[in-house]
Amino acid sequence: MRISTSQYFGMNVQTMDDQQSTLAQLYQQLSSGVSLATPSDNPVGAAQAVQLSMQGAALSQYSSNQNTALQALQSEDGSLSSVNNVLTTINTLLVRAGDGSLNDGDRGDIATQLQGIRSQLMGLANGTDGSGNYLYAGYQASTPPFSVDPSGAVQYNGDDGIQHVQVTGTRNIAIGDTGRDVFLGISPAGSSPVTAGNSANTGSGTIGNVSVSNPTDPTNQDKYTINFTSATTYTITDVTASTTSAPQTYAGGQAITLGGGGQNVTISGAPNAGDSFSVTPAAQSSTDVFANLDSVIAALQTPVSGTGGQANLTNALGTAMTQLHNTMNNVTSIQTSVGGREQEIEALQTVTQTNSLQTSSNLADLTQTDLTSVISKYTMTQFSLQAAQQGFSMIQKLSLFDYIGN
User: What are the UniProt keywords, alphabetically (predicted)?
Assistant: First the structure.
């Protein structure tokens, strides 16, 4: 095959043009630090870079969401710690109020203290986070969740919505709890049945706490009343099942079996005919911490007269302390859940940060200039171009007339 002079010159010029183009491209990579400026530079790498960029953007958003969720949960955690401190103070005052040496004035002072603490608890229930959003209002984050009506009773104005934040591609996490759950509810686990004496009782009978011997007995979920038909006999009515036992003989301090025998309770003192007592499952009793406080405050403000009055006060304090125990158990359970969510987010933050760094590294490998490699290629291409130019310069000087002349 013959190659004409024009073809030879054209091939050499094309070769040098290609080398100059390669040099220009390598120089651009060196000056900009970017090895993948356009998809044509590396189509496969460009597609991978797009995927990595999208993944990096998603990880960045998840990281931001995780920070938001963690801040919200930390605000609630701190608030619940304050609530627990207030409830502990209330418990201490109720124990003190049970001191038999106190007079009506002393108990009135404790009631006044409890009223102030109730206001403090109300302030915590209407607490806000760092952005001014109410912690316990559900979706109504701009409205105070609790208010006081004209009768002095506390009303819940929030809703039951719980805000969630997507912290990973497959995980949404709750970043709050409602005021109804925290201040108006109880935890199914760890709560105790509530015992109470009728405020109209005239005898000196007082009811103790319930003792559970068989937690799985279904009749433990029934409500009971113990009605004294005389000073020495009583009947037990299962209010839930609408059944009443035969009259039983009363002995002070002796265990009274309820329902199927899964729980029992003791009554001490000397009840009178017509006196009654009740045992209510925790979930069916009053779970409103504000209403429960109001009830015990009213009991402390009522003057005590005679053995009947002292017994009624003792029963009211026992009821209040059991209700308070259930509230504290509920708040502790919720705070434990909040702490678990905080730990989960902190663990996810570590994973997300690691994935973000790896994604950024992979993207950099695809798009950023490898200086060592590019400089080496640049130098080799430059040498090749110079050699081609020199060789072409020498060859183009050759002519048949040079040989004829000799």
Answer: Bacterial flagellum, Cell projection, Cilium, Flagellum
CB 367 within 8 A of CB 34: yes
Nearest to 51 by CA among 40, 62, 61, 59: 59
Q: Cα(201)–Cα(276) distance, rounded to whole angstroms?
A: 7
**What φ, ψ does residue 36 adopt, rounded to 5°?**
-125, 80
159 and 178 Cβ atoms separated by less than 8 Å: yes
The answer to whether 310 and 237 are in contact (CB under 8 A) is no
Q: Which pLDDT score, from 0 to 100, does residue 57 have? A: 87
275's CB contacts (< 8 A; 6+ apart) are 197, 198, 201, 202, 203, 205, 227, 228
Q: Measured between alpha carbons, how far is 62 from 52 in angstroms, rounded to an integer? A: 15
Both tokens of residue 177? 């709890």
Strand-pair partners of 155: 147
Q: Please write the tens of the pLDDT for every residue from 152-174.
A: 899 999 999 999 999 998 999 99
pLDDT of residue 395: 57
CA distance 210 to 193: 7
The answer to whether residues 131 and 111 touch, using CB atoms and an 8 Å cutoff, is no
Residue 152 Ramachandran class (φ > 0 left, ψ -120 to 50 alpha, else beta) = left
Instruction: Give the rounded distance of the alpha carbon of 40 from its chain centre.
Output: 48
Q: What would the two tokens of residue 382 be?
A: 């430059």
Q: Do residues 240 and 250 touch, judged by C-beta distance below 8 A?
A: no
Cα 99 to chain centroid distance, Å, stands at 40
Q: For 274-312, write each residue's pLDDT tens digit.
A: 999 999 999 999 999 999 999 999 999 999 988 889 999
For the chain, the straight-line distance linking the first and the last C-alpha, in angstroms and rounded, comes to: 29
Contacts of 205 (CB under 8 A, 6+ apart): 197, 228, 267, 268, 269, 270, 271, 272, 275, 277, 311
What pLDDT score does 131 carry? 85
Question: How many other CB atoms sit within 10 Å of the CB of residue 373?
Answer: 12
Q: In this predicted structure, what is the pLDDT of residue 367?
A: 55
- Give the H/E segment covering residue 372: helix 371-395
CB within 8 Å of 17: residues ≥ 6 apart = none
Which parts of the chain register pLDDT below 70? 1-50, 52-53, 363-406
